[in-house]
Amino acid sequence: MSQKRYNQEFKQTVIELYHSGTSVSELSSEYGVSEVTIYKWIKQYSPIEGTQELTVAEVEAIQKENLRLKQELEILKKAMTIFARK
């Protein structure tokens, strides 16, 4: 079974329709997307309460970037110790 790919614009449209009052079951039947997928999009791309309009996807991207930067810092620290010995 082939997995369908939906672009960000389509996902945002479905989420906006949900927030404007359209039920998930209506959206599912109208756009041919499973209800589980729509709920996942709502959770992933809706702003998190208590933040300045950050979504779960944005928080995950920030965490991934933070991890990458920490790894780069560790590499630089190791390189500094190697060059300091010479």
UniProtKB/TrEMBL annotation:
<dbReference type="GO" id="GO:0003677">
    <property type="term" value="F:DNA binding"/>
</dbReference>
<dbReference type="InterPro" id="IPR002514">
    <property type="entry name" value="Transposase_8"/>
</dbReference>
<dbReference type="InterPro" id="IPR009057">
    <property type="entry name" value="Homeodomain-like_sf"/>
</dbReference>
<dbReference type="GO" id="GO:0004803">
    <property type="term" value="F:transposase activity"/>
</dbReference>
<dbReference type="InterPro" id="IPR051839">
    <property type="entry name" value="RD_transcriptional_regulator"/>
</dbReference>
<dbReference type="GO" id="GO:0006313">
    <property type="term" value="P:DNA transposition"/>
</dbReference>
<protein>
    <submittedName>
        <fullName>Transposase</fullName>
    </submittedName>
</protein>
<dbReference type="Pfam" id="PF01527">
    <property type="entry name" value="HTH_Tnp_1"/>
</dbReference>
